[in-house]
Every structure is written in structure tokens, then in C-alpha cells.
Protein: CRISPR-associated protein, Csy4 family
Amino acid sequence: MDQYIDIRILPDPEFTSTILMGALYGKLHRALVKLQSDDIGISFPEHQRRPKSLGGVLRLHGSAAALDHLMSQDCLAGMRDHIQMTGLAPVPGNAKHRVVRRRQFKTNAERLRRRRARRHEETLEQARERIPDTVERKVDLPYVTLRSQSTGQDFCLFIEHGDLQAHPVTGRFSRYGLSPTATIPWF
Structure:
């Protein structure tokens, strides 16, 4: 993880930056799936928890070869008018490190009840008796809205930037460019 590319969302009168970030992230995710890549990490250097936002920059982390291969796929077709992208650049030598991972939460009791009813061959009323409203959780993490290619449903991908660490931890990244253990350089 010695190289990076920053992709900045440009202001647009027709689309919010949140919608554009979702489209950008979705395109990158599909490219990572196509390449079966597990050596590219993604972070959001402008993220904040209050107000919840991933910010306007998506940063790709990896080796020069991995990032060049990803960019050669023309995975950003249709986004070029909405983004500004830096070239490949070396990670600063004084960079800290952090884990950027996906977090999943039970945020909708009614959805959990429908799922339980389907999986356990119960009625919706039986599922309501077993799953109280108190399972719902308010989440303060920023997220990106994506569309599942398999189900066609929109879902929220919650992203947590972990604590800063002095040393890198190597590992593999998901097709979302996230890892529960591997770190990305943070600067």
C-alpha cells in the first residue's frame, strides 16, 4: 500500500454529492468484483460523524500495479464529468494507519420480522412477537447507499474509520475495498 489515488466529487446542480459518491463507489465495487481484487483499500479522508458524511473524496490505496490495473478497466465511465481524479502518488512517509471497515446493524425491526417470517416459515404476526421494536438501532456512522446486483434492493453500507495506529497491518480487502483487520495509510 505505497501508492494512492484521490477521487473528488465535483459540485453538480442536478445531483447531490451523496448520490454521486454512491454511484462512484458502486462502479468501483463492481470493478473490484470483476477483477477479483483483494489488494486495493478504500478510505474517505473527509469523513465525519457529525454531521454524518463520507465527505467529497474517495481515496484508493494499493500498489502502483494494482491501481494501474483497476484504472485500466475504465470503471469510471459515466462519472468523468462528476469527478476530479489525481494521478498515482506515493504515500507520505510519515503516514499513520487505520482500519476502514464495513459495519452492519439491525436498523429496521419490520425488515427483520419479514426476513424471519420467510426463513422460519412463520406468519408476520409470529415474527412480530419474537422481534420487538427495541432491536432497532440508531447508527451514527456515515454510509453510502448502494444497489445490490443480486437482489436489486438498495442498502446502506455503513463505514467505520478505526483509531489511528503507528504501524501498518497487512491483509486482504473485500470487494468493497474494506477490511476488518488490514490497515490503509492515513494522511
